[in-house]
Amino acid sequence: MSKRIGILTGGGDAPGLNAVIRAAVLTARNHYHWDVVGITRGFDGLYEGQPTVDLQEKDVRELLARGGTILGTVNRGSPFAHPKQLADGKIEYEDVSHIAISRMSEFGLDGLLVAGGDGTMAIANKLVNLGAHIVGVPKTIDNDIGGTDITFGFDTAINTATEALDKLQTTAESHHRVMVLEVMGRDAGWIALHAGVAGGADAILIPEIPFDIEVVCQKIRQLKLSGRNHSLIIVAEGAAPIGGQQQFMSSASGARLGGVGHVVGDLLADCVGSEVRVTVLGHVQRGGQPTPYDRWLATRFGSAAVHLIAQEKWGYMVALQGTQMSAVKIEDAIKMKFVDANGETVQMARDLGVVFG
Ligand code: F6P
């Protein structure tokens, strides 16, 4: 039976989103002969009834290597709490989820593929509970979505962060400096842990292990005594000292994690007697071409999600478990996935002499 399906991308972008769109369109068109449309600007675009975009083979041909999302996205806002400005300038939040759901039938959609992180999946799950025909695809550079071993975008982010450490290493060595690199990841330390190990960091500070700066200072002093006059410290944006708070920056769209790199840099400058420099990698981690692995994973996810729609597995999200493509309930996926502070990979890094503060 012929179907018409929609694709929506929500939350912060991640390299590989366009590869998901491409794979979903090609699978839907080639295998099922369905029509596919894109919803622009995430759930906001759906609620607002933005015109849909026809997606045919020709529209997705060059998308495999392109970063970002051709459909656009918003990473704040929800149809369950849509901001409305009142006459006195105050903002009131209203539930417009029923409008979002009615748009799906207005657009003639038999199913909707939603690619997003935990926030987007939480919205999708609530809409499914109200009867929406949605399947999910796990996206985030942070790799913190439950139910799947890995999310697409993560590999590209750790490549970027590792390359940054490699570059910082040579300049650190030349100047005998301590280099601090702050990376993203929200409340999870996956990017810092993986890039830290791959880039040979001497200390890895992650949210799952509150740090004692003195431990890092001791490590740097030991390195100096052993004749190595430079060191590399990678800090996840969500890391915090023992008994202390995470660092936030305020912006027009609200408070965002960030700033711990400079806090750590200042503390180290006080205790180690070397020059310290801080680099905040920021959105470079989210941009640019996806790695071949992320293209591969995003393609598998996009294609598998269309098969889930064919099976009418509403409320399920595609997932990678081991090497197998699988599906989990979205409600299980929105339980976030953290680095195990006592797990094998942290212990392996400790065995190498890396400190976690
Ligand atoms: O979730 C992805 C992520 O890149 C986080 O690592 C980071 O904290 C956040 O998004 C930044 O979001 P924004 O695009 O609002 O700056």
How is this structure best described in words?
Strand 11 and strand 12 form a beta hairpin. Helix 6 (154-175) packs across helix 7 (190-198) and helix 8 crosses helix 9 (260-272). The mean pLDDT is 96. The longest helix has 22 residues, at 154-175. This protein folds into two domains: 4-152 and 290-333, Rossmann fold, CATH 3.40.50; 156-286, Rossmann fold, CATH 3.40.50. Helices cover 38% and strands 21% of the residues. 50% of the residues are buried. The strands form five sheets. It has a five-stranded mixed beta sheet, sandwiched between helices. A four-stranded parallel beta sheet has the order 9-10-8-13, sandwiched between helices. The protein has a two-stranded antiparallel sheet with strand order 4-5. The chain has twelve helices and 15 strands. With 357 residues, it is of the alpha/beta class. Bound molecules: 6-O-phosphono-beta-D-fructofuranose (F6P). Residues 12, 75, 117, 140-142, 184-186, 237, 256-257, 286 line the site of 6-O-phosphono-beta-D-fructofuranose (F6P).
